Each structure stands twice: as structure tokens, then as C-alpha cells.
Amino acid sequence: MSRTVYLKISIAFISACFIECSGKTETRNLPYYNTADFSPQFLSSTKEIKEKITHTISSFSFTDQNGKQVTDREIEGKIHIANFIFTSCISICPVMTKHMKLIQKQFYNNPEVVMLSFSVTPWIDNVKRLHQFAVQNQITVPNWHLLTGSTSQIYTLARKSYFAEEDLGFTKDSTQFLHTEHIILVDKHRRIRGIYNGTLELEVQQLSADIVQLLKESY
Predict the structure, then answer these.
(1) Rounded to the nearest 10 degrees, what angle do helices 201-215 and 92-106 cross at?
(2) Is the distance from CB of 97 to CB of 137 less than 8 angstroms?
(3) How many CB atoms are closer than 10 A to CB 190?
(4) What is the pLDDT along the chain (219 residues), one digit of tens a residue?
């Protein structure tokens, strides 16, 4: 069973129990993820969140398909999603890009939602190549950045900040190739709130619904 499928089943079960036991019928709060094993934590009070959720996305600086320098300031106070692709990929990346376009379409005019696609072959995917990829795939939303830069920095950010690995709690060093179908959802305070299989349209639809849910949060 894949990590994403396992997590979805676990989260659905925990959420159902949480709602049933609390006697509430409204939409559940999204969980928080503080560790690489993606154990969900369902928290409601601001104090509890601040005390228990210590992991956030680290600072970064990369270049996008338009030659723009994109730093962590771009995601400050905004919801963002991140995935990891490369332009010459012929397996999962085209499918993920197709599904990411569903997010592009839904949140096209929403400046509070940012999309980050990090190249895992930045030594090949320079600005020109990423720009061509964007044109070919009709990536037109201004807040969807295809990013290139230092290989070690991208891989470190992927593994240590976004926990972007195939195996639960498994961390490779920065020299080992990264290839994952996961899309990570991060809230306005850089806290991880969801993981989705980007090759499955149903999961991306759930991602869209969860983004809407996060837009309603005030903490």
C-alpha cells in the first residue's frame, strides 16, 4: 500500500471518529503534519497549534520559468502547493502537470494561492527549458512557478522541509535522485496540511477542496 493511500485511509478514519465523537457535523479541520512519517495531528486551538506544530517550510531562493527570482517571501501569508518534476520525464510528471492545471483553473485569479513546481533535474531544466515547458503545457497563471537552481538546495528543501519521499520516514542524502508523485499542501504559516497523489484526479479534486477549506482559516 502506498504512503498516500495509507494516509488517506487513516485520515478518513480519524476524521470520522473525531466528528462523530464530538457530535459535530460541520466540515472537519485539516490535520497538521509535523514529522516525516506524516502522522496527522488534529488541533483546534491557536495555543495548541503553536505549542505542538514546530515544523515549517524553510527559506529558499530559486529562479522561475520567466527568469524571476522566487523566494520564500512569495509564499508568506499565502497557501501554496508544491510538487517535484522534471521536463524530460515521460512517466508521472505529465500526469501530475495535467492535474495541477485543474488547480490552476480553479484558483486562476486568487493571489492567495501559489503553485510551486521544483525541477529535480535543475542541471538540465534551465530558465529557457522551463519556459518552453510552460508554453507547451499552457501554464499561464502568474502564481505557478516552475523553479530551478541549486540541486542540493532543491533536494534538501524537498526532503527536509516538504518530506517528499516515497517511504514513510525515510530520508536520502542530497545526491540520490528524487522522483515522487506527491503534491504537498502548505498553509499560510508554512505548515504542512496535506499530501496527495498527483497522478490521481480524485486526490487532486480533494486537494482543491482542501485549499478552499484552508482559505477560510484565520489562524
Answers:
(1) 40
(2) yes
(3) 18
(4) 455 544 554 444 344 444 344 444 345 589 999 999 999 999 989 999 999 999 999 999 999 999 999 999 999 999 999 999 999 999 999 999 999 999 999 999 899 999 999 999 999 999 999 999 999 999 999 999 999 999 999 999 999 999 987 554 445 554 567 788 999 999 999 999 999 999 999 999 999 999 999 999 877
DSSP 68: -
Q: In this structure, what C-alpha cell is assigned to residue 125?
A: 531544466
Q: How would you label 33-57 residue by residue, b for 16+ Cβ within 10 Å and e otherwise? A: bbebebebeebeeeeebeeebebeb
Report which residue type is found at 24: K
Cα dihedral sign for 188, 96, 161, 41? Answer: positive
